[in-house]
Amino acid sequence: MDRGVTISFNYGIVYLASTVSYGITTYYVSYEITRLICVSYGITRLTCVSYEITRSIWVSDGIPRLIRVPLNRKLTVIILNGTGKGNVRGRPTRSKKDS
């Protein structure tokens, strides 16, 4: 059973939704064509999809971090994993449209 809560901040086109499902919290932020999905299940994962520059503030163990990811015009997915030990890694992938 899923429990969902949606919070919208209408400052232009910024939306924030929070969904709790089986102890997993999902945050979704949309600003123009930037997508940020944060899933917290013991490990914080950020999935950013953007055609331009994505700026995300990632908080792990109370430590805020500013991540700037310059992307090309092709659809690129950057997966950033943080285990609370300060390790962050990025992996660009291709979408089905680019295949």
Automatic annotation (TrEMBL):
Protein's UniProt name: Uncharacterized protein
Organism of origin: Cucumis melo var. makuwa
